[in-house]
Design brief:
The chain has helices at residues 8-24, 28-33, 52-65; strands at 35-43, 70-79, 82-92, 106-118, 121-129. With 132 residues, it is α+β, with helices and mostly antiparallel strands.
């Protein structure tokens, strides 16, 4: 077994819980602090992977567009050095997002995020959600 995976289920579940807590606290820097140097994030809302400052801006963009964003994890699965979280996010569209002006409408979307973890940091994420 890979040495980075030893004791992984509990550790990885804690990383995922911290990630979710930071999002729900609207703490963009807290989310970013969980990202390892060299982090790459893939979110189907963006044409290219996000890294470094791009990832921070993407996080902030979500939180500005949906200032009451709340994410509820429905299921968390751990395998190897990956955590899969299925979730539902709810919020009110109060700021521009994806070139769409604020609508003031409440939205709910379902999605799944796969986090690859090394140590206590996220090295890669894949986020697939219902953009429609």
């Amino acid at each position: 077994m890979d040495a980075t995976v030893t004791g992984a289920p509990e550790r990885l579940a804690r990383v995922a819980a911290g990630w979710l807590a930071a999002w729900n606290a609207h703490d963009a820097e807290g989310v970013a602090a969980l990202l390892a140097p060299g982090f790459e994030g893939i979110d189907i809302a963006f044409a290219a992977p996000q890294a470094g400052d791009q990832a921070r801006e993407a996080i902030g963009g979500y939180l500005r567009a949906f200032p009451d964003l709340a994410i509820v994890a429905e299921e968390t699965l751990v395998q190897g050095n990956r955590v899969v979280v299925t979730w539902t996010a709810r919020g009110t569209h109060r700021g521009p997002w994806l070139h769409i002006p604020p609508t003031g409408r409440a939205v709910a979307v379902r999605g799944v995020t796969v986090l690859t973890v090394a140590g206590d940091r996220v090295t890669h994420s894949l986020c697939v959600w219902d953009v429609a």
